[in-house]
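Order emerges. As here.
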Amino acid sequence: MTELVVPPAADAGLRVTLRLLAQAQKGSVGAPAYSRFVNRPMGRLFAALAFPAGVSPNAVTATSAACTFTGAALVALAGPSIPLGLAIAACLVLGYGLDAADGQLARLRGGGSPAGEWLDHMVDAAKLPVLHLSVLVGLYRSGSVHSGWLLLVPVVYCAVDSVTFFGMMLNETLRVQNGVATRAARTGERVGALRALLTLPTDYGTLAWTFVLFGVPSLFVPLYTAMAVAACAFLVLAGVKWFREMGRLGA
């Protein structure tokens, strides 16, 4: 668990609150570089700003969802342009930062609730399929791809990310059931920066920033396709590793 021992006073100050949150971070095992070095600090800042204002973690989750799904709607419904790409990326990056803030805000308030955790995971489970299917619709409507098979890329990407997310959640559940520390638990295991960088192509934050190029399909489509390939490779390699880990749990 990663809870604060004593929640700070509402007037504790931004610097004190940020320091307390930094001390209560969940484990970094397997966390890609953007999530670890950029998004978590962003989430800490958002949580520290929301705490004295009395904002609830569920309100932060709802705001995160609104930003993310607004970005996805723009992908599907608006014609590609450079300003549009910047707007989409801003919505997705802000939504991801707020996604990192709700749990940290809950710890500041003395701990989260099962309902809050459920809501957070439901939004997480929805955002990737919705985003990839929005890419499919957006590329089809705009006629940005000249080869029909490229429209299969977001379909495959959607399936791969959905299975990956389910696998990660199932792994955590089985670890808890077997009395093994979860990936979110703080342990003495050192996580090198190289590992975090190698998994950068699979990071949702990296995907969010690729939409800066959504207004230039000749650049966005190859980059998006390359990230889909990386996600497929990650799922294959991670699936083998996870299966072996679950086998050891059973033993």
